[in-house]
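Q: My labmate handed me this sequence with no annotations at all. I'd like to see what the chain might look like in three dimensions before we decide whether it's worth expressing. Could you predict it?
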Amino acid sequence: MFEGLFQPMHLIIILAIVLIIFGPGKLPELGGSIGKAIRGFKQAMNEPEKQSPEDTKKIKQ
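A: Here is what I predict for the chain of 61 residues:
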């Protein structure tokens, strides 16, 4: 279904559509926010799961 999706011509067309929608001024801001979101997601995946005090009380009982 997505075999030829990432060919150079397709990527150029996608980039042109993004430029038309967001404009050249918003692209750095958009890229920065996407980068922050990805970093936050990776950081959350690497952190150990924090338990609430209620959960620890249930485990101790």
